[in-house]
Sequence to fold (660 residues):
Amino acid sequence: MPSTTPPFAGTRVLVTGGAGFIGSNLAIALVERGATVRVVDAMLPGYGGNLFNLEPVKGRVAVEVADIRDAQAMARAVKDVEIVFHLAGQMDHVLSLTDPFPDIDINIRGTTVLMEALKHHNPGARVVYTGTRGEYGSADSLPVAEDAPTNPRGLHEISNLAAAKIIEMYGHVHGIKGTMLRLSNIYGPRGQMRHSRYGVVNWFVRLALDGATIPVFGDGTILRDFLYVDDCVEAILLAAGSDAAVGTLLNVGGGEPTTFREVAETLSSIAGARWAFAPFSAERKAQEPGDFYSDVSKIRRLLGWQPQTPLKTGLERTLAYYRESRARYW
Amino acid sequence: MPSTTPPFAGTRVLVTGGAGFIGSNLAIALVERGATVRVVDAMLPGYGGNLFNLEPVKGRVAVEVADIRDAQAMARAVKDVEIVFHLAGQMDHVLSLTDPFPDIDINIRGTTVLMEALKHHNPGARVVYTGTRGEYGSADSLPVAEDAPTNPRGLHEISNLAAAKIIEMYGHVHGIKGTMLRLSNIYGPRGQMRHSRYGVVNWFVRLALDGATIPVFGDGTILRDFLYVDDCVEAILLAAGSDAAVGTLLNVGGGEPTTFREVAETLSSIAGARWAFAPFSAERKAQEPGDFYSDVSKIRRLLGWQPQTPLKTGLERTLAYYRESRARYW
Fold:
């Protein structure tokens, strides 16, 4: 796969949310490929931003603490870049059930502030947006392709859907070239580990490293397509480098459906983790969409991308990362 | 059709945007059916609110000038009502191309403020939301049914789609019973007439009454399903009174596809209006989705509703209304 990655040497890029989980992995990959990388991150407390995430490229990325809702900051941030990777956002779907306004303000209004900045100051830049498979809601049939109905089950997912539609619209109406991705459950190094409200696999990893019991909800047979973050970064880079991806919506998922039980069992076998079945809370149940895995044939066909990292390998790398750097994340 | 309308005698209802075009017609119909009607309208300059719209029910509706973005005002407004008709919104899709923020703030955030008020203060109330056929964007095939893809072409239409998804979500997650309507091109008495950025048919009526030439864009053969406002009100009332409509999305359209040229010709025959072909402006072209008419078989099946008013009759009534009350609208 690395052979298919477009060259980024000398390319000027902006990564919003670049101190966060996927954003920082992306920023590091871009620096390694020779890009000139500018990161903006609002570093909101409780969110995913962690400056330690960018340690491997310290001094080789320009980091500005700025909020995508700040029009003046965004006007500066988009200046002279060729690609904008838009990853900043409110990511906590549980929070969105009790307080819907951060999603509206950050994910919808903030995305619009960013797109307005591009429209006025740099309409020629490419945009890649990372939405969520939650934009689909429950799967009517499996695997879920890009033309499936969108019935998002929470404000967070609605805000991602709206943001993607907004970026698509700036393409139609204002000619800004965007690609809208819908990511499935991403896991790996550099995700925040202080609370359990982001990725479930990373939370399982924390519990394993803490020697705590991993709760597997229901009977553990619910299916997801978990994807290792490096594979996700590869998909984002390919999307940014491809004309075929302009104006297009693409699923980025693990391809192979896997049960939560299988994740727990793998962590048990490679790290001695304990796990046990646990009942669904009412709140969790209301948000639980049942089996879900993405059809990734469109991105394979268009960009030649497919997941490379088996679950066991990805979990081993994730465990190793957090064993090493635990003090920066716990 | 009136025989199928549910009785509203003694029912306490709230109409947001109730001084606007459809909202005021709805409020009047509700008063006539014996409902206790509370109207809130922000009366924003340049929007559709006009207190003269409520003249026929003066003293028989409680009108509060309040904004749906005001949480305290909404907490008061939803108190003790059994049905909330949510019609308030930013309606100008041309404005949304240059300034996307009013749509986000009013239509998305405002709708959420209203739904939070219901969640906290009156979760048992029914909600009926009036979105737009613009949520679909261009028609992939005709007529357009409720399960068609949604590819809205402007921020205004995206904001309506998001608002509908939000109301649907408050149903799933918080148990609030909502019905989401998608209205096609509504025309008739009580629409604002100061600018041309709302309904095209009402604007044609103004031009006819002004003795100005009606511009028919392109070759005039683009199809729409125009619907007279009384028929629209009937659909809204039926939706509010039906358990079958809870959690459901319903098209409300004219049923019969009609060309813009036919509208102009009808106005010519009944009011001596002049009309002429006119070229599309670039901006109008970018927003023009081509032929569009809704499939209204779902609402017919579920609620027994169908359009009753022929175009000629609707235009005659509209002309008569504005001839009479022109000074209040021009």
